[in-house]
Fold this sequence. Notes:
- This protein is an all-beta fold.
- It has one domain: Rieske [2Fe-2S] iron-sulphur domain (Rieske Iron-sulfur Protein), CATH 2.102.10.10.
- 0% of the residues lie in helices and 39% in strands.
- It is built from no helices and nine strands.
- It starts with a strand and ends in a 10-residue tail after the last strand.
- The model has no long low-confidence stretch (mean pLDDT 87).
Amino acid sequence: MITLCNLTDLDDPGAKGFDLDFRRDDYGRPLRIIVTRLGDKVFGWVNSCPHAWVPLDVDKGDFLDMTGQFLLCANHGALFTLGSGFCLRGPCKGKKLMAFPLKLDGDAIKINANPPEGENL
């Protein structure tokens, strides 16, 4: 397991981005993920809008809308819930962000060093 950060490193609610070097795409770019927090729960999402497959953050690490309650796709204005990744508004309304598996171990937010084979990340 790889520790990404601690729960206390995230605002509540909050979001933080990570570039994972162990899983690169066809162009040699690291896999970008977002970790969101709601209370004592954390969720992982691939940082890719289901509308145009672009990262949600235009300014690296800036994921939340003005209210701080939703993930915002800065390219198209889509809004996603922090806990389900469901799109409430925008060109991908009704779709979801691709989940990325996380584990909360005490205060540590961890991922598997090798995600399961066959996952289309």
